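My hope is that you will study the record closing this message with an eye to the fold:
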Amino acid sequence: MKQFLRYLPPIHELQKHERFADIQNSLKLDQEKLTLLTQQSLNKIREQLLAGTFEKSEPTKIDFITYIFDELEKDANEYGQCFLKKVINATGTILHTNLGRARLSKEAIEHVVRIATHYSNLEYKIEQGERGSRHDIIEKVIKEVTGAEAAMVVNNNAAAVYLILRALAKDKEVIVSRGQLVEIGGSFRISSIMEESGANLIEVGTTNKTHLFDYENAISEETKMLMKVHTSNFKTIGFTKSVSTEDLIELAQKHSDIIYYEDLGSGALYDFRKHGIGDETVVDEVIKQGADIVSFSGDKLLGGPQAGIIAGKKKYIDKLKKHQLARVLRVDKLTFAALEATLVAYLKGKHKMQDIPVIRDLLVEPMVIKERAERFGSKLTGGQFKVEVREAFSQVGGGTLPDVELPTFVAEVSHERKNAETLSRELRLYSTSIITRVKYDKVLFDFRTLQDEEIEVILQALVDLA
């Protein structure tokens, strides 16, 4: 097809075409950018002709012009679009890591918008009229919800672990049970973070059993910290033993210069155990037991933005605040705004906590989910789709509560002509991407993570795709 290359129109000719002007006017792109996109469309055709893959066997110059502007219009519409897009999570996994984990509450979103669109007192003391510290923004509310003497925030919990080890245990020994040397998402390992921090890891016990005497026997003059790591993303069951927080705190307190640090991972501020959901320790319990320092995530069970929250004894937090890495790992005003508004909901009590989407979705009654699923099914029947509402289980996700299965109801949808993989893909590529599960050649919609307005979007998408 190389002989057809001579029919390709030059750029200056395409610039004079009426479709070029129409696209430019409708999308408000300047001529330089649109010319660049036109050149890319032209190059695409040239490559197809050289490879012999162009869609027409005997193309004319008019065919080329039509194809170029069709491609240009598509590319121009996509040009400059934000990569991050809203998606609808119909999987039922509440803290879906790939889909952004925790959704923010309405109050948190409003506070972010308020702070983003105005100047703020990020590092300013209004009463005194002088420079302040961004640590002050969030410290008071964290202290109130956890009972800690002091607190600070960094950009995620891995950063919190690194800062604590680097600032408080560099070149010193940190004792950790072998059963807690976990790997979190993206192949980040506790042992690797500790190595980078300059702390010396001392492993004790075995994968399934660690005793108090293992810690006692490992303590030396170089020991600076006893560290307990929450195994958020897995459970070891069967012939197992671990040492309680209370016993480790008591052991650390026998040595005046040894710090007890607990990485709590998921960071529950609400006691889900009261509802029979998991056995996650609440942060304030560990603080009350006497832990010197704890850290946990902001965007998991807490239900806020990505952040690493550090709380504990003032003398250690003050040292962390003064460390050079505190500036490297600090968060911006929008994270502070989202986190502050989320934590204020905890201060106000159980009623306001229910406004946090993670808590709401974890505690929603199965019968409420069933009603949503049946209402969805009733609106979809009678056409090309077959819908069956069935009992199933949701996951918490985000490496949190791995052994917890939440009773739910799903709508199993099948189409008379399309298989499940095809329908799931079309939903994923819909104007508002809809993420589903596929099982037994049916598309599953779990209504635990779906709100009424999202259900309406899904119904319209299925009508459009039918």
In short: The two ends are 38 Å apart (CA to CA). The mean pLDDT is 91.
